[in-house]
Amino acid sequence: MLELFTELTGNALLGMIINSLIPLVFVIPLALFFVWLERKVSAHMQDRLGPMITGSHGWLQTFADVLKLLQKEDIIPADADRKLFTIAPILVFAGSYAAFAAIPFSSAYIGSEIDMGIFYVVAVSGLVVAGILMAGWSSNNKYSLLGAMRSVAQIISYEIPTVLVILSIVVLAGTLNLLKISEMQTAYFWNWFIFGGPEPGLIKFLLIPFMFAGFLILYISSLAEVNRTPFDIPEAESELVAGYHTEYSGMKFAMFFLSEYANMFVVSAIVSAVFFGGYQSPFGYLGNSLGISWLVPIEQFFWFTAKGIFFVFVQMWLRWTLPRLRVDQLMAVCWKYLIPYSFVNLIIIAFLELYR
Amino acid sequence: MGILDKEFSDSNIIITNFDNLMNWARLSSLWQLGFGLACCAIEMMATSASHYDFDRFGVIPRNTPRQADIIIISGTVTLKMALRIKRLYEQIADPKYIISMGSCSNCGGPYWEHGYHVLKGVDRVIPVDVYVPGCPPRPEALLEGLLKLQEKIRNESSVKKTA
Amino acid sequence: MSIKTEHMVLNMGPQHPSTHGVLRLELELNGELIVNVKPHIGYLHRCFEKHAEAMTYPQIIPYTDRIDYLASISNNFGYAVTVEKLMGIQVPERVEYIRVIFGELQRIASHLVAIGTYGLDIGAFTPFLYCFRDREKILSLFEMTCGARLLYNYIWVGGLSHDIHPEFVRLTREFLNYFRPQVEEVNQLLSYNKIFIERTANIGILPAETAINFGMTGPNLRGSGVKFDLRRNDPYSIYDRFDFDIPVGDGRMGTVGDCWDRYFVRVLEIEQSIRIIEQALDQIPEGDVSSAIPKRIKPPVGSVYGRVENPRGELGYFLISDGGLNPFRLKVRGPSFVSLSVMGELCKGHLIADVIAILGSIDIVLGEVDR
Amino acid sequence: MKSSKEIFEILKDEFGDKILELKEDIPVDPYIIVTPDSTEKIARFLHDSSDLQFDSLMVLSGVDDNNPVKTKNEDGTESLSGGTLSVYYHLYSIPLNHKIVIRAVTEKENPMVQSVESVWKTADWHEREAFDMVGIRFENHPDLTRILLPYDWDESSFPLRKDYKNPEFYQGMKIPY
Q1: Which residues in chain C are closer than 8 Å to B126, comparing Cβ atoms?
Q2: A234 pLDDT band (50/70/90 cuts)?
Q3: CA-CA 20 to 30 A from C365: which of A196, C218, C342, C349?
Q4: Nearest CA distance, D134 vs chain B (angstrom)
Q5: pLDDT tens per residue across span C274-304
Q6: DSSP alpha helices (H): ranges in C55-193?
Q7: In a domain, A76, yes or no
């Protein structure tokens, strides 16, 4: 894709800029859509209607929200650390935006096809932690600080089971490249890693239960990484008011807000890329059967977005159903259950792969 | 608003359209400070709950004053509470609006005569945009108050001072 | 070498999402562990007792509504019972039945708010809205009778302000039939939710002896396993005619007297209230509701302490009369006021999140704490 | 279950002249008047005695009795001073199902009553409220501060006293309508 843009503009730098802006064009409307979806989903689950007045069924609601947040006064508390306070939301947003660089939207477009794509995504999401800690510390507010501390402890802990589960896929796939991992699970849904991966045989069937376990662990820890219920204790509304972004107003808050929803999509994208074939269609492509080659990437993009939205929807579903855990219970879930289970899971999968 | 009042003597068509857009954004997304005082707070909760559903108008509760746009003073303001309310008001980022809900916060309500610890009207400490009468006002009345506030915002201009 | 550390003081409230109003809790924290909790109240002190001294007896009834605004009928009820006790008024049968029906409907409505906001405190948003949706249906029954949604001024000394609507009995039965399965839904969504149980069981354990010593009443006392209900142990009105159970906490999910027990007693009480209402609807006689209302309420010199079982516990009115048209002194014993004082005792050694769980489980209404 | 009369007899035997009288002639609840300097001992006895077992303090109320003494000044005008304040204790026994009302009367000039906080924890906040509203001081109370009114409220101003005058301003806010 980069080559195409370079060719079109005739300038490598311009091509690069355009190439890197594509996820932004994608991520901001997507985040806005998710905010709207969250409000509608929650409303319908709760016997309400949700936004109805602003646009038909409130579809303009989040545009109005962001436009309003733009107009709001930008308050920096007198005792806050001004520099850190300003950098923090940018860092958080940058972290979640940078993660999009290595996510394969379709076989035709990936921001940067690096060989250690999945490693990069996990690492760059770590930036978010730094941003949150900065926000909490610089606000000079006790609630913010508590929220930030909780958040850091939680995200760093849950990174371990996430990585362990991803490792088990890497063992099977033999690559860290997300595009290659997606490409492997091509054609039909039984080639997805959740169903044991593309290689047929007895081992494939033996893998299935461990793959399901791995998927559950990954999904649960991804919930924790994006601070969603039942692990939303860093911004636990009923305890810490608004957690680490208690002191943020206006556009700075909007950055936290949008990056939260962008992050939700990132983790959903990873879950779908490693277990559910990424951008691959479950039933083959209309473009292939009709012989229209340019239709395939568009279909792939559709499937990728659809899978992402589905997992985001499940996150919302959980949020509006479950209560939240306490901070020590949250740690217990991670260290006492998820990490040992994911270790065992990894070892078994590695053995199965060894004896394939 | 009045942020541009020095530069332009009168509004022209661009400013007007820009104003309309901005006013529309503000009035469609009035985030309320999740904060209840007394009896009226229960009616305020009922207004946000399933039956009346404040969210239809884009009103959602935010718990921190920094991210709120309107504060609904829902109940009796006591002297002990008055200065806290003033502080909350000051913490809200501009532009901010106040709805005074119920007789107590309008004027002291039934406690006007012998209430040695009741502030007779929240407008003695903070400016109020819309007063909603009633003790307590029905959720419909609060919705009406919100619509009145939206009307008020719709007529605001960034060029001329409205107040 | 030891590092010098000091405890952090965190002010929770008066504006905080889960203090249930304008309560300020001063938390002394060691990390996230609670060292000490000090509640500061009075942010809603509306001088009820001063007003009572300046008003005539019927004028006070609207003010009693506003003490505990989630259970206005129960407050009217308590006040009417107290004044009637001092004046020796016998109210008609029909009035008694209507009072009981309304009192129990109000109990359901109040417990629904308690259950819903408790779920909200723990982080479950949806049960709160389900509870409010069902509460709305009870409010419309009240509205049909006396025109008000929240503060009714319905039970008067010696009678009622209005008779019930001719359709009331049918609609109430309809509501009860609709409502019974909803309780089960709340149980599935919240009470038996694993995370909810983890958050509330074995938290804030209140032993029976401490509970009595702190003057806890109502569901909070029963949650500690004490089978004590004023409707049974010190019957007023006509509660001795009905057949109902007194649910007590049994430590099903943890220890007797923990937050889950206190919460679940409320759920069970809703079912008992439904039973009482059904019996009362069956037995309600015809008659007049205003015949016993005195023209001028002027009790004799004396003092009386009347108490009723409010949804939150024992609501008491201590009334001293000097024979005039105004009470000489009217002191209210609010159950929430007494229950809240146990916070400091319950919270020690728990985490911040548990403070919310404990505060929600004792179910306070700030209007009644501060009066 | 014991009647007020019996409880009065038991108390009279135990404490003698600390128990002043039993008031039974006015409706509805009879009460026992005791001296304010021994309420803690009496309370402890009522709570612990196996015959009485008053394990629950329902309510503790501070009351201004509004009985000031009229004195004629030298210039012929009358002025009111003195009078009494009372504390009412409504006790209930859950196991024995009986009630009693105890009243302790103290001088308005220097109102001092022994605290019963060590016997019933309920009394803690109720005594603070009585102090806040009527101005009765409780001996041995661990933290006798204002509870409902702000901590910086005028020290000698107690709203539920009958001679209470509303202040004009509090922290720059006008109080009267």
Answers
A1: none
A2: low
A3: C349
A4: 14
A5: 999 999 988 888 888 888 788 888 888 888 8
A6: 57-65, 72-87, 93-122, 126-146, 168-186
A7: no
Does residue A205 fall inside a structural domain? yes
| A300 in the same domain as A201 | yes
The answer, for B83 touching chain D at a CB cutoff of 8 Å, is yes
Q: Closest Cα of chain B to A331: distance in Å?
A: 26
How does residue A85 score in pLDDT terms, banded at 50, 70 and 90? confident
The CATH fold assigned to C8-369 is Cytochrome-c3 Hydrogenase; chain B (1.10.645)
How close is the nearest chain A Cα to the Cα of C187, in Å? 13
pTM beyond 0.90, yes or no: no
Boundary (domain end) residue, out of A17, A48, A71 = A71
> Could you tell me which chain B residue has the CA closest to the CA of D168?
B116
Residue type, A82: R
Neighbouring C-beta atoms of residue B103, cutoff 10 Å: 22
CA dist A245 → A150, B14, C71 (Å): 13, 35, 37
pLDDT value of residue A12: 75
Reduced to 3 states (helix: H, G, I; strand: E, B; else coil), residue B34 is coil
Is the domain of A189 the same as that of A244? yes
Structural domain including A8 reads: 1-71
Chain A interface residues (partner C, CB cutoff 8 A): 42, 45-48, 142-143, 146, 229-230, 232-233, 236-241, 320-329
B110 touches chain D (CB under 8 A): no
Q: B136 vs C151: CB contact, 8 Å cut-off? A: yes
pLDDT of residue A206: 80
For residues A45 and A118, membership in a common domain is answered with no
Is the CB of residue C213 less than 8 Å from the CB of residue C251?
no
Here the ipTM equals: 0.85
Total of domains in chain A? 2
Q: How far is CA B103 from CA B74, B107, D68, in A?
A: 9, 6, 38
- Position C68 scores a pLDDT of 86
Q: Do A238 and C18 touch (CB under 8 A)?
A: yes
Provide mean pLDDT across the span A141-147. 83
| Contact at CB, C70 and B42, closer than 8 angstroms | yes
Q: Are residues A66 and A193 in the same domain?
A: no
